[in-house]
Amino acid sequence: MVKALILIADGTEEMEFTITYDTLVRAGVQCTSAFVPDSATPPPVPSSAALLDTTPESKTTPTLVECSRGVKILPDTTLDPLKAGPDIYDLLVIPGGLKGAQTIAGSSPVQHLIRAYHEYPERRLIGMICAGSLAALQASLKRQPLTSHPSVKAQLEDKFEYKEDSVVVSDRLVTSRGPGTAFPFALTLVELLFGAEKRDEVRGPMVFPVGTPW
Amino acid sequence: MVKALILIADGTEEMEFTITYDTLVRAGVQCTSAFVPDSATPPPVPSSAALLDTTPESKTTPTLVECSRGVKILPDTTLDPLKAGPDIYDLLVIPGGLKGAQTIAGSSPVQHLIRAYHEYPERRLIGMICAGSLAALQASLKRQPLTSHPSVKAQLEDKFEYKEDSVVVSDRLVTSRGPGTAFPFALTLVELLFGAEKRDEVRGPMVFPVGTPW
User: Fold this and answer.
1) Which of A6, A10, A17, A18 to mutate to test the interface with B (most CBs of B within 10 A)?
2) Looking at beta carbons, which residues of chain A come within 8 Å of B184?
3) What are the pLDDT digits (tens) for B117-173?
4) Which residues contact B118 (CB under 8 A, 6 or more apart)?
5) Where does the source fall among the domains of life (chains A, B) (predicted)?
6) How many CB pairs (< 8 A) connect A and B?
7) Taking the CB of the first residue and of the last residue of chain B, which one, N or C, has fewer CB atoms within 10 A?
């Protein structure tokens, strides 16, 4: 079964998080959302039971997240870098929302994970949307095509081949712009994982208006 | 301040809920999400403090909701019909997701609230999206133009002037079709509450792709 790890922090954009999670589930992906604490917050002390538990889906100390516009989401688990790697998941997703993206992109364990997904021998995908693209910079990914929310373009355009397209696919790195591009972002991830037919199968029952350009 | 009450139940479609809540917050609406228990579940016994508290925003016994594709959302409060009327809120929203919509539409207090919003002397709005439109039927609203997710059309087309438009505005009742129409649904509510200029102001930073038809 294809597995996705979707990161979330206080201040994550709830539409970008939810549209990606929900669309991937509709495609049959097993999604796990993982809370990334602010680096100012000490990490939870794992219980002895958690230390013994080596299953990837173990649910350790989930923390309620307050998203950017006040929706409160309970993540499936708290990020454990030892159970979050490209040996377990096929896809790593970093949503936007400036405050949440800064927390996620500023996390040293997340930066290591991004590089691990980027360099893994088998092909893995990394999705970043909106201010989430700041994580490509913080993880020191090589210069390649990328987009982001316009509000963080100035931080990215020197280090990457900055594009204004709604979704930019650069080998393993898939980037996008904001809540308004979250559906084409998520559907592009579905297509890259399963092909165009599955994308159409997921898209149909969502009932997009006639003339929607994705 | 304009206030919206957005209902949520186990099985609510998380994209429809979140897109509406977030978009309204971006427009400056004070949003309150209220949990509607399944009628099979006994209502929580209010504490004496809750009985003394008459503020509309009082947070009584919020219950974690498991949405249709597994996202877990903590509502702002549990529905208290005495603090949910058109004397307090300007807008009542009922999202889809078949199981959640059936719970919400089947709730007798919700049916009374819908009629109260429909008939209130001052103009109030009622938004229903996807299977949420079943609530218009259950509340016995008068025959008028309406749309819904195609999967529940057969239950609605005899009692309403059924339309296939992405968003249908019938005086106070605003209906829509599915996750793919949730953005135009939410932006239509913003426009009805505040005008076209505010709609454009909210829409811009969302960065919809060129050619998006809303």
Assistant:
1) A18
2) 209
3) 999 999 999 999 999 999 999 999 999 999 999 999 999 999 999 999 999 999 999
4) B124, B126, B139, B141, B172, B173
5) Eukaryota
6) 124
7) N
Burial class of residue A63 (count of CB atoms within 10 Å of its CB; 0-12, 13-18, 19+): middle
pTM of the model: 0.92
- Residues in chain B with CB shorter than 8 Å from the CB of A184 are 209
Q: Are B213 and A214 in contact (CB < 8 Å)?
A: no
Query: By three-state DSSP, how is residue B22 classified?
Result: helix
Q: Report the relative pairing of strands B173-176 and B167-170 from DSSP bridges.
A: antiparallel
Which of A18, A74, A214 has its CB closest to that of B18? A18
Report the residue from B74, B150, B214 with minimal CB separation from A72.
Answer: B74
Work out the minimum CA distance from A113 to partner chain B, whole angstroms.
23
> What's the gap in Å between the CA of A95 and the closest CA on chain B?
14
Q: Residue A91 phi/psi, 5° resolution?
A: -145, 135
Name the DSSP class of B68. T
Active site residues of A: 16, 130, 149
Nearest to A20 by CA among A170, A146, A176, A195: A176
Whether residue A5 contacts residue A92, with contact meaning beta carbons closer than 8 Å, is answered with yes
Beta strands in chain A (DSSP E): 3-8, 30-35, 65-66, 72-74, 77-78, 91-94, 125-129, 145-146, 161-162, 167-170, 173-176
φ, ψ (nearest 5 deg) of residue A105? -65, -30
- Tally of CA atoms within 13 A in the half-sphere of B35 that contains its CB: 23
d(CA B173, CA B141): 10
Cβ pair A179:B64 closer than 8 A: no
DSSP B39-67: TTSPPPPPPHHHHH---TT-------EE-
Ordered per-residue pLDDT tens for chain A, 214 residues: 999 999 999 999 999 999 999 999 999 999 999 999 998 655 555 555 555 555 544 445 578 999 999 999 999 999 999 999 999 999 999 999 999 999 999 999 999 999 999 999 999 999 999 999 999 999 999 999 999 999 999 999 999 999 999 999 999 999 999 999 999 999 999 999 999 999 999 999 999 999 999 9
Which residues have a Cβ under 8 Å from the Cβ of B81 and sit 6 or more positions away? B109, B112, B113
